[in-house]
Amino acid sequence: MNAVGATPLSDRGPGRPRGLVRALGRAVHRPSAAVARKVRKATHAQGAGESGLGKLIELHAVNSAGDMLITISLASTIFFSVPTAEARGRVALYLAITMAPFVLLAPVIGPLLDRLPHGRRAAMAGAMLARALLALALAGAVATGGLELYPEALGVLVASKAYGVVRSAVVPRLLPPRISLVKANSRVTLAGLIATGLAAPIGAGLHQLGPQWPLFAAMAVFVLGTFLSFTLPHSVDSAKGERRARLSAAAGEPEPWLVRHTPGHGRRAEKRPGLLTVGVSVLNALIANAHVRMLSGFLTFFLAFLLREHPFPGMTAAFSLGLVVVAAGAGNALGTVVGAWLKGRAPEVNIVVVMLLTLTVAVGAALLHTTVAVAVLAGTAGLCQALGKLSLDALIQRDVPELVRPSAFARSETLMQMSWVVGGAVGISLPLFGTLGLSIAALIVAAGTVATIRALLTAARRGTPHPRVA
C-alpha cells in the first residue's frame, strides 16, 4: 500500500527521468554560466564593454581557437604522419604553394583594406566564413592527403592573415578612455593565447577520432566568429576623419639606413611630398620587429625538423617539440603581461633591450647548443616578439596622427606577417645541423640589431617630433 498522500509509483515514473535530466542540465549549465560571466566581466572591464573592445577581444579568442584546431589537423597530416624526409618535402611544398603566394598577396592586403574602411566588419566576417567553408573542404582532403589540400590551406592562410590585418586596424577605433592602445592590444593578444592553449588539448582529443574532426570543430568555431563579427559596434565601419599612412620618415628626419638602401627608394622619395608620414622612430621599430618576427618564423620550421630528427638527449621527438612550443608560448604570454605593465613607457629603450636580449640569447644558443639554451631561445623569441610589438604599438600611438593610425596598424601588421613567412622559408631550406641553424638565427637578430639600435637611440636622445599632416 502507498502511504497517505504519497504519489503512486506509476504516476511519478515517467517524470523521474525528466527531473534527472533537468537536474543534470542545471548542474552542467550553472558552472559554465558562471565561467562565462567571469570571462565577460574580464573582457568588458574598464569601459571595454561600452566601447566594443570587449567584443573584439572575444572575437579574437574565437579566431585563435579556430586557427589552432586547423593547425593541429594540418600538422598531423603534413608533418607527423610520415617519415622526416617525406615530411620535409611536404612542408616545403606547403610553403611553396601557400606562403610563397602570400608573400605576393600580403603587400596588397593592407592597401586594399585601406580602400575599404567602411567594410571592416564584413571583411572580418568574410575571413571567418571563408575559413569555415575551407575547414569543411579540408576535412575531406586530410583523409586522402591529396594535392587539393594545399590550395585550400592557402585560402585558410590568406583569410587568417587578412583577419589579422583588419583586426590591427580596428583596435584604435574601439579604445575606451581608460585604456591605452598598448594595454588594449595586450588584452587582445592574451585572450588569443589563452584560447589557443584551451583549444590545443581539445583539438588533440578530437584528432584521436580522426584528422577531420578538429576541422569540423574549426568550422563550427568560425561560423560562430562570422556572427560575432557583426556584433562589433558600427563605429568599426566608420572612416570619418581617417586617411592613409605612408611608411616613410617625416620631412627633415633622417631615414634608417635599411630604408635608404632598399630598391626603388629614389622613386618613392620623389612621390613623398604631400603624403602622411609615420616618423623615423616608428620605421626603426618596424625594422626591429620585422627581424624578430623573421626569427620566430625561422625557429618554428627549423626547430620542428631539427628536433624531430635529433631530439633533445633523453627525450622523444614529440616531447622535445612540446618543450619548445610550451617555452615559446610561455614567453609570449609573459611578454604580453610585461608589456601591459610597462604601459608603453620608453618604447625606444624597450626595443633596444628587446634586440640586445634576443641577440645575446641567440648567440648563447648557437655556442652552447644545449637543451636549456634552445628552450630559452624559444622562450626569449616569444617574449621579445610580444614586447617588441607592444612597443611598436606605443610608438604608433605616440607619433602617428589619429586619423592615419588604423592604416598604420594595418600596414605594419602586413609587414610583420611577411617577415614571418620569409623566416620560415629560410628555416625550411637549411640542412639539419643545429649549430648552423642557430648561428643563422643569431645572424638574423644581429642584422636587425645593427639596423635599428643606433637610429633608435639617436631618436630617443633628440626626441622624435610628431609627423606633420601635409
From TrEMBL:
Tagged with keyword Cytoplasm:
no
Sorted UniProt keywords: Cell membrane, Membrane, Transmembrane, Transmembrane helix
Membrane topology of the entry: Multi-pass membrane protein
Annotated localization: Cell membrane
Q: Which Gene3D superfamilies match?
A: MFS general substrate transporter like domains
Read off the SUPFAM superfamilies from this record: MFS general substrate transporter
Fetch the InterPro entries from UniProt: MFS, MFS_trans_sf
- Broad class of the protein's primary localization: membrane
**Transmembrane stretches, by residue range?**
91-113, 125-147, 188-209, 215-236, 275-305, 317-342, 349-368
Q: Which PANTHER family match?
A: INTEGRAL MEMBRANE EFFLUX PROTEIN-RELATED, INTEGRAL MEMBRANE PROTEIN
Q: What is the protein named?
A: MFS transporter
Native species of this protein? Answer: Streptomyces durbertensis
* Source taxonomy: Bacteria, Bacillati, Actinomycetota, Actinomycetes, Kitasatosporales
